[in-house]
Design brief:
Blueprint lengths: L8 E4 L8 H8 L5 E4 L4 H5 L7 E3 L3 H5 L4 H7 L4 H13 L6 E4 L6 E4 L2 E4 L4 H7 L9 H8 L2 H13 L1 H11 L3 H12 L8 E2 H11 L4 H18 L7 E2 L12 H7 L15 H14 L9 E6 L4 H6 L6 E2 L8 E3 L8 E9 L2 E8 L1 H9 L3 H17 L14
Parallel strand pairs: 1-2, 1-4, 2-3
Antiparallel strand pairs: 5-6, 7-8, 9-11, 9-13, 10-12, 12-13
Helix pairs in contact: 7-17, 8-10, 8-17, 9-14, 10-14, 10-17, 11-12, 12-13, 13-14, 16-17
């Protein structure tokens, strides 16, 4: 992905077609540029870079360059003619300002609160624009990523290893164990894939180079810097997702500061390495966002006619009464009390009939974790598969009457 600079960039290069440090650096972060070279070196540079980037120095600029004439006699003109040539070229483009740099730069950084933050290579922006899983545009393809025998088996093993904190969280926060395990399974495959991007890079890139959500990510960058100070961690070392989400549950820094809990009793809330802390923090997040203990999440449904489309278009917030559903062409797979507030979602798969679900308050809460109906439906389906696959814990032995 190209990052268009505000002003044109010129690299003054002589005899460096092999090393090309600045060129390689700018290529690495997707920034366009021009290279000013002397005529005799044109072919050498054209053999290793795109010739369209080359500007051939008008050698008459050497004669025009007479500033510091005494020094010129001793030292030669240096890069002055090429810089003047670049200046005139920028003016011919209508640019009031331009950048003119030497070809010996190995990295670019921006300063943010005294932190040197490397400029993005464009991968973060590309990932934000088109996350890999959503590129599928198909519910069944999306679902297959997360609901498969391997992920279910790994989830059962995670559940067995962490049965105590899961049971504790279910009791304290009212969130079923399988829902918490399902979220961790979808987010990071039970902590195996917590991300490879430096969080500071992701947040700085999105805060300053992603205008459509810059305000949100600037807030998250601020939260991250405060979190780093509060937790006494090096902000340059933490790895996470391309969006800056952190740890086993993939909390954004703001959520980390508000909802992370110490659930293993070691005195810190460590979402990167502590499954117990991740489990308790997810339970805390869902409860804070309105999870209703003991209530269902969603039901399968069938539709007829066209009136149901109004429900889908109204969004996932549970605003309709269950009693209204039959009149809108929606048939529930299970009865609901008439005053139950609900919504209707359509899960589309090209070339196949859509799936429909009547969703309740707890489904809406899942979409506060990730604002995608596909995501919440995948968590719910994975949770159901996990609950079916995990054997029930053995019943306690009966009391011994002899004792």
């Amino acid at each position: 992905m190209k990052h268009a600079p505000q002003f044109p960039i010129y690299i003054v290069s002589k005899g460096r077609w092999e090393s090309r440090l600045t060129m390689k650096t700018l290529d690495g972060i997707g920034v366009p540029y021009h290279v000013v070279v002397e005529p005799q070196e044109r072919d050498a540079y054209a053999s290793v870079i795109d010739p369209a980037k080359l500007l051939i120095l008008d050698m008459s600029y050497k004669d025009r360059y007479d500033t510091f004439s005494k020094l010129r006699a001793e030292l030669g003109t240096g890069s002055g003619p090429a810089r003047n040539f670049a200046w005139d070229h920028a003016l011919s483009l209508g640019a009031k300002w331009h950048w003119c740099i030497d070809d010996n730069i190995q990295s670019f950084h921006r300063l943010n609160r005294n932190l040197k933050v490397p400029v993005s290579d464009g991968a973060i922006i590309k990932a934000m624009e088109q996350p890999a899983e959503t590129a599928l545009a198909s519910w069944q393809a999306y679902r297959a990523i997360f609901i498969n025998p391997q992920r279910v088996e790994a989830g059962v093993q995670f559940w067995n290893r962490n049965a105590e904190p899961l049971a504790r969280a279910a009791g304290e926060f009212g969130v079923p164990e399988e829902i918490i395990v399902g979220i961790i399974g979808v987010e990071t495959t039970y902590g195996r894939n917590i991300g490879t991007y430096r969080v500071i890079d992701a947040l700085a890139t999105l805060a300053f180079d992603y205008p459509k959500r810059a305000q949100f990510f600037r807030g998250e960058l601020e939260n991250y810097l405060v979190l780093s100070r509060e937790a006494k961690i090096d902000p340059l070392r933490v790895k996470g997702s391309y969006a800056g989400a952190i740890g086993i549950p993939q909390f954004m820094p703001g959520s980390y500061r508000r909802f992370a809990v110490d659930y293993d009793g070691d005195g810190t809330s460590d979402l990167a390495t502590s499954p117990a802390d991740a489990i308790g923090s997810i339970g805390n997040f869902l409860k804070a966002h309105g999870w209703a203990r003991g209530e269902p999440v969603a039901f399968s449904a069938e539709v007829s006619g066209e009136l149901w489309r109004k429900l889908v278009e109204a969004g996932v917030a549970p605003a309709s009464r269950a009693a209204e559903l039959p009149g809108l062409g929606v048939k529930l797979a299970a009865p609901l009390p008439p005053e139950t507030r609900c919504a209707l979602i359509e899960l589309e798969t090209p070339g196949q009939p859509s799936e429909f679900r009547v969703t309740l308050q707890n489904f809406f809460v899942l979409t506060r974790y990730n604002r995608s109906n596909l995501y919440a439906a995948a968590v719910l389906d994975l949770a159901a598969e996990l609950a079916r696959a995990r054997p029930a814990p053995p019943a306690p032995p009966p009391p011994n009457p002899a004792k």
